[in-house]
């Protein structure tokens, strides 16, 4: 099963805030009060729309903005980490979930040749208008009271995981790397198999510490692994990536092949059956196991336990009780 890396962008992948860095493209390198004073709490993206309009009005061309964005410094160790991710695409998927904008992120990653490390960028959509100005739109609307109006990262992550599960991809582990207050909401939806990796000394790190002090260890299911450099995350990822399962594993997606049986997804070790389709019977799983000469590995009694009817699509991760080691 693959690992999913989820990255915040500002102060995580890069060591600055894109929306602040972009001001460097102005001849004065500052914003006038008439623009700066229009910021309203919780409405940063709308404010940035006005900043970008002002930059356009000053005659700064998008190419100039791009060349400034390409000079933003990366957080130490991040280029090496993303290089490792791009070299291990068969075992690691990677997405960016950021409240910056799609265009800045694309420019920064392309500038260092690391765009291919990232499968998807989820951010506020940006485009260049006919008049040459950058225009920003909110990423989505949501019901979460804790997040800024334009983006709830938890909603982004849950939608991504659910769509991937529909396509048969279930991640063994999710690693969420971030620094900010808006990274707490998604961190709280992670399971105990996952890890949230807050940047040491930054807001998310402090919030998680406070949460644990006030509500105890049970307040967050995921393992908390603070980091100061991408090298520490790389070490963590290497360790996880290299951990080979003990014996033979077959994963079944909910999709059926022409013969009416569930399709094996990939072979590694220990038997995991992912039952995402409520109409799939345990008998069918048994038949499939026979087809794959694994019948002896799994007892009928275990098989019937493998598929409770209450299991629905939200079972995105393989629960431990669904895994069975033939050598047990
Ligand atoms: Mg951030
Ligand atoms: Zn939220």
From TrEMBL:
Which keywords describe this protein according to UniProt?
A: Hydrolase, Magnesium, Metal-binding
Q: Which Pfam families match?
A: Put_Phosphatase (PF06888)
Is Flavoprotein included in the keywords of this UniProt record?
Answer: no
Q: Does the keyword Isomerase apply?
A: no
One Gene Ontology MF term: metal ion binding
Its needed co-factors are: Mg(2+)
- Show the PANTHER family listed in the entry: PHOSPHATASE, ORPHAN 1, 2 (PTHR20889), PYRIDOXAL PHOSPHATE PHOSPHATASE PHOSPHO2 (PTHR20889:SF1)
Assigned protein family:
Belongs to the HAD-like hydrolase superfamily. PHOSPHO family.
Name the chain's protein.
Phosphatase phospho2
């Amino acid at each position: 099963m693959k690992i999913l890396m989820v990255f915040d962008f500002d102060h995580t992948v890069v060591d600055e805030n894109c929306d602040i860095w972009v001001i460097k493209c102005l001849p004065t390198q500052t914003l006038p009060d008439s623009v700066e004073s229009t910021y309203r709490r919780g409405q940063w993206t709308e404010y940035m729309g006005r900043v970008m309009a002002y930059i356009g009005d000053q005659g700064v061309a998008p190419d100039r903005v791009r060349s400034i964005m390409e000079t933003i410094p990366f957080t130490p160790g991040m280029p090496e980490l993303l290089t490792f991710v791009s070299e291990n695409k068969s075992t690691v998927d990677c997405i960016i979930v950021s409240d910056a904008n799609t265009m800045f992120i694309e420019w920064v990653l392309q500038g260092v040749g690391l765009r291919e490390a990232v499968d998807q960028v989820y951010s506020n959509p940006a485009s260049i208008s006919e008049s040459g100005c950058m225009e920003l739109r909110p990423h989505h609307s949501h019901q979460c009271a804790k997040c800024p109006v334009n983006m709830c990262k938890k909603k982004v992550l849950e939608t991504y995981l659910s769509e991937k599960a529909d396509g048969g991809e279930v991640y063994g582990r999710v690693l969420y790397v971030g620094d900010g207050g808006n990274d707490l909401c998604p961190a709280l939806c992670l399971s105990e198999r996952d890890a949230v990796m807050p940047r040491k000394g930054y807001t998310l790190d402090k919030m998680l510490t406070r949460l644990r002090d006030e509500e105890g260890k049970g307040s967050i299911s995921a393992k908390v692994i603070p980091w100061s450099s991408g090298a520490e995350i790389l070490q963590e990822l290497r360790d996880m990536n290299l951990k080979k399962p003990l014996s033979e594993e077959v994963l079944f997606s909910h999709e059926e092949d022409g013969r009416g049986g569930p399709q094996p997804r990939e072979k590694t070790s220990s038997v995991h059956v992912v039952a995402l389709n409520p109409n799939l019977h345990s008998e069918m799983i048994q038949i499939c196991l026979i087809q794959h000469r694994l019948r002896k590995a799994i007892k009928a009694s275990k098989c019937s336990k493998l598929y409770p009817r209450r299991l629905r699509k939200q079972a995105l991760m393989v629960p431990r009780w669904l895994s069975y080691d033939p050598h047990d």
